[in-house]
Amino acid sequence: MLFVGDDWAEDHHDVELQDATGRRLARARLPEGLAGVARLHELIATALPEHDDAASGELGDPGRVWVGIETDRGPWVQALVAAGYRVFPINPRQVARYRERHGNAGGKSDVGDAHALADMLRTDGHQLRAISGDSPLAAGVKVMARAHQTLIWERARHALRLRAGLREYFPAALEAFDELAATDALELLGKAPDPTSAARLTRPQIEAALRHAHRHGVKDKAVALQTALRTPGLTQPAAVVAAFAAVTRALVAVIAAVNTQVAVLERSLREAFDTHPEAEIYRSQPGLGPVLATRVLAEFGDDPERYADARARKNYAATSPITRQSGKKKTVAARFVHNDRLVDAVARQAQGALVVSPGARRYYDELRARGVGHFAALRQLANRLVGILHGCLKTGTRYDEQIAWHHRHRAAAA
After folding, report:
1. Is residue 324 within a helix (H) or strand (E), and if so which, with residue range?
2. Could you please report the per-residue DSSP string of 302-327?
3. Distances from the Cα of 303 to the Cαs of 18, 214, 307, 391, 392, in angstroms?
4. Rounded CA gap, 68 and 365, in Å?
5. Under CATH, what is the fold of the domain 2-131?
6. Is 65 helix (H, G, I), strand (E, B) or coil?
């Protein structure tokens, strides 16, 4: 066995190679890119001359080489996986705690981190999870799903900035528009970003913006909008209003561009997801819409060996509770260290399932009747839905309401 600690940076990697006894065999700083990977292969081949062909640089069994690195993505990681090494993405917090086990002076360096990674892999490798073997299609869906969600988050941040600015000089606009990132709001604020110009907007202009946004009841809504925009209010000096109006135009342009790219990326995301062999299983789950299904697939991945059982999948989703027990004291609490994107997705699924799944609704109502709070009940429902998804993926079957909640139906009938 050979253990490699790889402390990565943007342009280089500090690596250390150890044997099974902890003896350091090599240490080097390698450049990022093809030349660095080639040099790493040479170091590994040289460190295992008794079993491998060091002259040719080829490894007889690359699976005997374990690599610890504080990331799970990027071309360097993919090159290590392609070489056949067992790659372990290790959380930086785990590495920090490991350093504290061997010294409390607080020192830290790239070389020291490479040593800690290799040593940690040698002593605690059986406790660590190797990188998942997701398909390239699932990896691509993950890239797009995360980017799509990030753009939505960025749009929300820009909308909040726009709202804060309007509150300073044009509060009537906040009364007129319920959703500032909507197409009609952006079009009208782009044309009239200040109270004076907004008051001059004609009824046909407002109706045209509402039609572009595919609104219903255009005429009535146009009257209400025009009335709201012409409502008198407190004002700022002309120079300040002009400055705020310029900021509003800029934010409106940014939000409109983000809206366009969100729609473009969503189309690409759906097209890629549609070609995945497990797409129909994900779509069949209650509460998973077209976009939410892609996010759940992206975060769970499609490696069939990644989750040993439903409990492992639930633990990764952070829907299952954790127990803290010491002596006579025992507490059960929610998991606070988790994948934020996956937690958000399964929580939204649970909310949607309450509407479309009678079994999910009945389960939630039973929890609430027992005094469980709303969010705790949703988390338990999400935990149940993750288990159902795991069973469907393992058996290759679509969701079936009767099978998923058969025990609940029997209990209700009794």
Report:
1. strand 322-326
2. --TTS-SSHHHHHHHHT-S-EEEEET
3. 29, 42, 8, 15, 15
4. 46
5. Nucleotidyltransferase; domain 5 (3.30.420)
6. strand
Instruction: Give 118's contacts (C-beta < 8 A, 6+ positions apart).
Output: 3, 4, 5, 16, 17, 18, 68
Q: Which two tokens stand for residue 62?
A: 């690359």
The backbone torsions φ and ψ at residue 122, rounded to the nearest 5 degrees and listed phi first, read -70, -40
Asked if residues 189 and 173 have their Cβ atoms less than 8 Å apart, the reply is: yes
Question: Which stretches within 48-103 are classed as H helix?
Answer: 75-82, 92-102
For residue 305, give the DSSP letter.
T
* Structure token pair of residue 109: 């360096």
- Compute the distance between CA of residue 398 and CA of residue 279 in angstroms, rounded to an integer: 10
CA–CA gap between residue 78 and residue 93 (Å, rounded)? 23
Domain map (residue ranges) of the chain: 2-131, 140-271, 280-413
**CA pair distance 317, 312, nearest whole angstrom:** 9
pLDDT tens track for 225-271: 999 999 988 889 999 999 999 999 999 999 999 999 999 999 999 99
Distance separating the N- and C-terminal Cα atoms of the chain: 59
Question: Which tokens go with 114?
Answer: 């490479």
pTM greater than 0.85 (yes/no):
no
